[in-house]
Amino acid sequence: MESPVRPVMRMLVPAVLLLSACRVPGMGGGGSGAEQAPVQVTVSAKCAGPNQTEISVSPWNARLRESQTLEWVLAANANSEQITVSPKRATQWPFAGAPYVGQRGKPVSAGRANQKGRFSYNIQLVCRSGSNAPDTVLVDPDVIID
């Protein structure tokens, strides 16, 4: 039986990633026609035992431009098979197609934003390791669009 969803905040280290100047190699010096690299949020989960799941989300606050895409990837060494990403307020979410379900090691993309601002979302996963009971966790980072 899976444990109830519980917020995990105590072990997270906030980080801000500023990729507003990031360019795909070979695409020139910028400008409105230059394709920009996606901003990637990496999620990892380690299950040490019952109620001892360690979650990392990097960057905690993802920062991107409207012209960039956002994607999440569940780390290849995570003790989880998939993540589900969903907005906290669906009517105020700047991307189409939510919720997003990603598999371990394979990025899932939200695409391009359609508005600027700061948006909160949830990442949910079930952490499984050995004979430990599954641990369902929910974390709530942000995306900032300039």
Protein model, in words:
The protein is 0% helix and 45% strand. The chain is mainly beta. A hairpin with a 5-residue loop joins β3 (39-47) and β4.
Task: Summarize it.
This protein has 146 residues and is mostly beta strands.
Dominant shape: elongated
Number of domains: 1
> Might you state the CATH topology name?
Immunoglobulin-like
Structural class: mainly beta
> In CATH's first tier, which class applies?
Mainly Beta
- CATH architectural arrangement: Sandwich
Stretches where pLDDT is under 50 for at least 5 consecutive residues are: 8-31
Order of helices and strands: EEEEEEEEEEEE
Q: Largest sheet, described in full?
A: 8 strands, mixed
The CATH superfamily name is Cupredoxins -  blue copper proteins
Separation of termini? 43 Å
Residue fraction in strands = 35-45%
User: What oligomeric state best describes the polypeptide chains here?
Assistant: single chain
Number of helices: 0
Helix content: under 10%
**DSSP strand tally:** 12
Q: Average pLDDT across residues? A: 79
Round the Cα radius of gyration to an integer and report it.
16 Å
